[in-house]
Amino acid sequence: MSADGIVGEFLALKSETDADLLAMQCGDFYEFFAEDAEFVGDELDLKVSEKSSHGSTYPMAGVPVDDLTPYLKALVERGYRVAVADQYETEDGHAREITRVVTPGTLLETTDPAAQFLATITRVDGRYGLALADVTTGEFLVTTATAESDVVAECHRFDPVEVVPGPTVDADLLDQIREGTDATVTDHDDSAFAPGRAERTLREQFGEAALDSVGLDDRAGVAAAGALLTYVEETGVGVLDAMTRLRAYDTDDHLNLDATTQRNLELTETMHGGSDGSLLGTIDHTVTSAGRRRLREWLTRPSRNRAVIDRRLDSVAAFTEAALARDRVREILDDAYDLERLAARATSGSADASDLLAVRETLALLPALAEAIEDSRLADSPLADIVADPDREAAASLRAELDEALAEDPPGTVTEGGLIRRGYDAELDDLLDRYESAQEWLDNLAGREKERTGITHLQVDRNKTDGYYIQVGKSETGAVPDDYREIKTLKNSRRYTTEELDDREREVLRLEEARGELEYDLFTELRERVAAHADLLQAVGRTLATVDALASLATHAASQDWCRPAVVEPGPLVVEAGRHPVVETTTDFVPNDVDLREDRGFLLVTGPNMSGKSTYMRQAALIVLLAQAGSFVPARSATVGVVDGIYTRVGALDELAGGRSTFMVEMSELSNILHSATEDSLVVLDEVGRGTATYDGISIAWATTEYIHNEIGCKCLFATHYHELTALADHLPRVENVHVAVAGDGDDEDITFLRTIEDGPTDRSYGVHVADLAGVPSPVVDRSRDVLDRLREDRAIEARGAESGGETKQAVFDLSSGGFREGSEAEPTESDGGELDPATESVLDELEGTSVAETSPVDLMARVREWQERLEEGEK
Ligand SMILES: Nc1ncnc2c1ncn2[C@@H]1O[C@H](COP(=O)(O)OP(=O)(O)OP(=O)(O)O)[C@@H](O)[C@H]1O
């Protein structure tokens, strides 16, 4: 079915774009037609009506022109790309064309203060190029990598809202990126990724010198960055001028944190979603949204560079020691607006007068901030350099210009005048003078006319239909002079005009129009001048954000009594009286030491359920992460050797995403860690192997320990319920046992969680005790104890450890005696009656695999009964 008329035009425009939806301006409305109308009707709860067009009817849904933004935002934030066709006047009527495509990565109107990254990825000569830009602030980064996993990790770290892949990027990589982000994937013109074209685009944007100085000789990086610029340009968002600098970075600059680890450590969100209770939510005391973005960036991308870390720590230290100056600084920053975002709005032409006022007010804070820092105890800290970074003179002169130009209380629209101060432009002043004298004449007209005519009920007013008029009460209309011409009769009065009044009215209207136009022009010029200073605004914005983030770190450190870590490279992790940064704020926390050094780099953490193993390990990881972010840490003292990555596998998270079983997820995360971790990493494993049958689980945990110890050689914390593993400490030189202490033996007495970490393995698991605590009926608990005792007979496991000579030594661990037998045959021991019969073995497997907490007492009893029967059968 072909459509003519307005719907035909809509469909024709729609076929020009690959956007998901089209909003087409029709006079005072933006309309969606046909399928798009039905779609937005459902998504946005818009009323869908019928539009007849050339004999057919079509669904239609519309929003008023001034209300488009929130609807666009809602659609784009749900991941759709929306083309906008604007209507413009032509000689013979009007025409429409698509002026921009709003996509998740180019949505300037976002109200979410978090960074909003658009990413392009490509592959050239076997290397990946990744470019990332936040159009709302003009931030633009580019990096290259050889390994696919690095690209995925970077994408997860920046969490882009939109990813534009080049033609050489395969679907598998995109699937991996999608798994850790909510990014919309957009196809774009392949030719934009061609290295030659991309290089030209980059040169045009940043100039020859800038390009050389970032050293982008890697064609993959050039291709990704150039394609990103082309894409931003083609969407028509108009922010290219806000992209004032290209920062090339190396993935090695930052600590590796995969998406799983970011989630496990609850850096910005808790496992249940929401930022309350996350690390960021807990330690954030920033007073500006740009400061919060900066803090978030530091926590999700901690540094690996000691100089960078020490510089931040020096600033935080200075702030903790100068509470008064810190308060003063935070008070000043409290009035700051988001300059980086304002710069992008100025560049795209969407900034209004209040935005420019916000620029002016924020620029005005810079001298006050500099003074608060330079005239206090902060003067000798790196803060003085940070505040000296932006060009203060340029900032002052831009501010002075805005001061001179902008009216104090400008209206919300930019077309009606009232934006510009007197004294800024002679022509405008002249217009205003004439306008005011005309206005004065009008203001005094009523008085003059009363005097001239003797009429008492006479007033001069103005409305839309009648323009200016003189209104006279009915009783006195007889007294109106001859030069009054009647224009309207009302119930109690009549309205008149005079020739002179008409002249004056025309003059006022002409002046008003001229003023609106002139002010709009002046305002646009001013906005363009502000846009031309985008790099200055960004520099000031960065300074304010950085100072805010540093002051926030100091505020938290001071209030929670955190200490400055000694950051060493490379080195041990030694923490005295450490705490978990989040848990300590809600609980009476028992501090613990962490000691991971050369000869004890691998700690096996045992202890009853609920005793605090996970908390202990996360606290160690978070202390390292905070230190490398440049923060003080929750401890009495801490020495933190810089690590290149933190990798975690935490058992508690039941993730059934993607239809994979919990165990499959667990194993693929383990696989990822074992592939990625290096000697300089920190690995945290919580109950690896738990998701499968006991023997499989022990075997995997055992082999993992050996591999990490012998092959990777990194720092590792491994919590396990498999007591069998604790014997490995005797055999693998760097493995040490620690346990969370409890009081009471758990068999007959109640146990008390002491929450302290002590050297050595725990002697039992207390799982049965927890079952007891959870209210499992006593016959089941008692019988479990009996069964557990019988479980102490078992097979042997062979331990492998690399001796210093490189020769592999083998030993055999005998679970029934709890010790090793040295030897090379690694035969299972025959002690205590030899191997278990299959019936016993299967009962044991099931018993270990039974979750007491998740099985009802009735089922538990039934299972125990069945096990007893099978054991009796087996004995026959
Ligand atoms: N040092 C501590 N001081 C005070 N409370 C703590 C401490 N460590 C942990 N806790 C609290 O103890 C509870 C259990 O901690 P956690 O989850 O770390 O135990 P777990 O040994 O890993 O348990 P499971 O083996 O069942 O997974 C948590 O509610 C935590 O807040």
Describe the protein in words.
- The protein is an alpha/beta fold and 876 residues long.
- Among the domains are: 98 residues, DNA repair protein MutS, domain I (MutS, DNA mismatch repair protein, domain I, 3-Layer(aba) Sandwich); 136 residues, MutS, connector domain (Nucleotidyltransferase, domain 5, 2-Layer Sandwich); 242 residues, MutS, DNA mismatch repair protein, Chain A, domain 3 (Orthogonal Bundle), CATH 1.10.1420.
- 44% of the residues lie in helices and 20% in strands.
- The strands form 6 sheets. A 7-stranded mixed beta sheet has the order 13-23-24-25-21-26-27, with helices on both faces. It has a 6-stranded mixed beta sheet with strand order 3-4-2-1-5-6, with helices on both faces. A 6-stranded mixed beta sheet has the order 11-10-7-8-9-12, sandwiched between helices.
- The structure holds adenosine-5'-triphosphate (ATP).
- Adenosine-5'-triphosphate binds next to helix 20.
> Total number of helical segments?
26
Share of residues in strands: 15-25%
Strand order of the largest sheet: 13-23-24-25-21-26-27
Q: Which ligands are bound?
A: adenosine-5'-triphosphate
CATH architecture of the domain at 284-461 and 497-560: Orthogonal Bundle
